[in-house]
Design goal:
Elements (H helix, E strand, L loop, with lengths): L2 H5 L8 E4 L29 H8 L2 E7 L7 E7 L2 E7 L5 E4 L11 H22 L3 E3 L6 E7 L4 H9 L1 H5 L3 E7 L7 H9 L4 H10 L14 H16 L7 E5 L5 E5 L7 H5 L3
Parallel strand pairs: 7-8
Antiparallel strand pairs: 1-5, 2-3, 3-4, 4-5, 6-8, 7-9, 9-10
Length: about 280
């Protein structure tokens, strides 16, 4: 079984997976004398072979952290969107999982989270930026908020309406990543918006006339638009959203966060910023 497949089993807080790289010598890991006990390997030290093997299997963003334990090097990385901790032993082998302390509680969770939340967020933001979305607001609005939206979703319409003070003031631009998942004509309505000469105006029409049925569905859906909608739906699922709206934003520290469904009133300033 490949490392990638074995990583798929890292689901619980007490899961641990021993890994080894055939032919790796015992001194493949940084020697204990190269750094203080528990300290991460120096930047100039060669990367342990086990980390190179994991990187080839798709584990990204591997960064060292201090385990506080002699002869045990710790690295935080990402397997897809799953944060993983990798521990490299003096013999060059590795363990992927979560250490458990004598009190039965997981160790290193905060360290791993701190190290991976920015690269994970940046990767999510990059995927959203490259997706097919419809601008709602001014292009130079300083705050960007992505939302997975279905043209027939009443909660998406409520979020659109609630965001008007921020959008109309030029403080926020909403980027609607359209999907068609709620009703039979969701796809054709989304296609009508994406296929319009001015998608932003078409989106506005749908939201303003939502209670009257919204935009008129497209008569047909081109192959190109169907592919875009399918890709958007796959991205929505990949990011963990099962329904709409699925909202992604950067908090005041620049960390990417997500909100499922229509946010309560007191959460709007967290997502959209100060009014």
């Amino acid at each position: 079984m490949s490392v990638r497949k074995r990583l798929a089993f890292i689901l619980g807080p007490i899961t641990a997976l021993a890994l080894s790289t055939p032919g790796v010598a015992a001194d493949a890991a940084p020697p204990a004398s190269a750094a203080a006990p528990g300290a991460p390997a120096a930047a100039s030290s060669p990367k342990p072979a086990i980390l190179q093997a994991l990187a080839r299997e798709g584990v990204t963003g591997l960064q060292p952290f201090d385990t506080g334990t002699r002869d045990l090097s710790g690295f935080a990385g990402l397997a897809g969107q799953q944060p993983v901790a990798v521990y490299v032993l003096p013999d060059g082998n590795g363990i992927v999982g979560t250490r458990i302390g004598a009190d039965g509680k997981p160790l290193d969770v905060e360290r791993v989270t701190h190290l991976i939340e920015k690269p994970l967020g940046d990767a999510i933001w990059s995927k959203l930026s490259a997706s097919t979305w419809v601008l709602d607001g001014k292009q130079d609005a300083p705050r960007i908020v992505y939302t997975f939206s279905d043209p027939n979703c009443p909660y998406c319409n409520r979020f659109w309406e609630s965001a008007r003070p921020w959008v109309d003031a030029g403080k926020v631009q909403l980027r609607h990543v359209l999907v068609g998942v709620i009703k039979a004509d969701s796809v054709t309505k989304a296609a009508a918006i994406l296929g319009a000469s001015n998608p932003s105006a078409a989106l506005l029409q749908n939201e303003q006339k939502f209670k009257q049925g919204g935009i008129k569905p497209a008569r047909s859906v081109t192959k190109a638009i169907a592919q875009k909608l399918q890709t958007n739906q796959m991205l929505m699922a990949e990011l963990g959203f099962r329904g709409t709206p699925g909202i992604i934003y950067r908090n005041d520290k620049g960390i990417v966060e997500r909100a499922n469904g229509m946010p309560p009133p007191d959460a709007l300033t967290t997502i959209l910023g100060a009014r």
